[in-house]
Amino acid sequence: MKHFYTVFFCPLLLFLFLAGISSCSPDTQEPEPVVPAGALSDSLTVLEYRPAMGQFVNILPEYRVGDTYQDMLLKTQQSLRQGSVITLGGFGGYVTVSLGSSIKNLPDKRDFRVLGNAFMAQGSTRTGNSEPGIVLVSQDVNLNGLPDDTWYELAGSEYFKPETTHNYEKTWHKSDTTLNNPFHRQPYFPQWLTDTVIHVSGTLLSSHMVAENGVVAQQVLEFGYADNYPNTDSLGTAFDLDWAVDQNGIHVQLGYCDFVRIQTAVDEVYTMIGELSTEVAGVVVIKSQE
Ligand SMILES: [Ca+2]
Ligand SMILES: [Ca+2]
Ligand SMILES: [Ca+2]
Ligand SMILES: [Ca+2]
């Protein structure tokens, strides 16, 4: 409990640390991602964008009155092609992309990268503003170009730990205001949806908020999560199809995948920083010669 007392007694410190800014600002933004040269691809297609509620929903990307779901898919796609950040909102929100052709499972090496906007705390190698999302992959087995086939989670470092909850379910209600903070006053529920609830399920990671040198921050997870390591870390942001498991956690050997889904895997809200929510700034194939 000590960590949480620290959170509540030093919210501003935590806020400044996690937001990476030097002064309190009423229009705090997600940090702009660093995008590796040559990493962006016009072949990236956004097939689904279903964020949960969150303080950057309707901003990253921007919703304008009248926008349809198709409009939001195109805006999300435009952002990811440019290396701009999109938010997945709180627990269970996700985005699904394809990259124009199958991603091959390169033997004995990682196969693609997921870019985000995580950064490390100054002078630390184990804490930062990690907001981990799980990564799932799928093959277009029925060859219809749609992500309607079996999904396999890539088992990251937390997958088999007892504190990780699989098949966690949550229902977000449009009328819920528990996430609201004074820094972001736009609606937190996706405004293009006609429904008033969002039902989600997926892997839930336990809290990794830790105290280091008197400052509270998110512990960076060892491997296998989006928005966890900075984009400058080419290994920490890379994923291997060899990590794929089925619904029962049994390893599955995949020679390729056609679709990649990133889903927020944490369900935590803090007084000054708001909810933890995964951001994505691109998905990039690793070439065999890299
Ligand atoms: Ca591989
Ligand atoms: Ca399909
Ligand atoms: Ca976030
Ligand atoms: Ca983030």
Explain how this protein is built.
- This protein has helices at 2-9, 11-19, 69-82; strands at 45-50, 86-87, 94-98, 103-104, 112-115, 127-128, 133-138, 151-154, 165-173, 197-204, 209-212, 215-219, 238-239, 244-245, 256-257, 259-264, 269-270, 274-275, 279-280, 282-285.
- It is mainly beta and 290 residues long.
- It has one domain (2-24, 41-285).
- The strands form 7 sheets. The chain has a 6-stranded antiparallel beta sheet.
- The radius of gyration is 18 Å and the shape is globular.
- The protein starts with a helix and ends in a 5-residue tail after the last strand.
- Residues 1-27 have low confidence and may be disordered.
- It binds calcium ion (4 copies).
What is the gist of this entry?
The chain has 290 residues and is mainly beta. Helices cover 11% and strands 27% of the residues. It has helices at 2-9, 11-19, 69-82; strands at residues 45-50, 86-87, 94-98, 103-104, 112-115, 127-128, 133-138, 151-154, 165-173, 197-204, 209-212, 215-219, 238-239, 244-245, 256-257, 259-264, 269-270, 274-275, 279-280, 282-285.
Poorly predicted segments: 1-27
Intertermini distance: 44 Å
Count of distinct strands: 20
| Radius of gyration of CA atoms, rounded to a whole number | 18 Å
| Biggest sheet character | 6 strands, antiparallel
Helicity level: 10-25%
What ligands are attached or bound here? calcium ion
The overall pLDDT average reads: 89
Total helix count? 3
| SS-derived structural category | mainly beta
Helix and strand succession?
HHEHEEEEEEEEEEEEEEEEEEE
- Please give the order of strands in the largest beta sheet: 1-3-16-7-8-14
Shape estimate: globular
Strand content: 25-35%
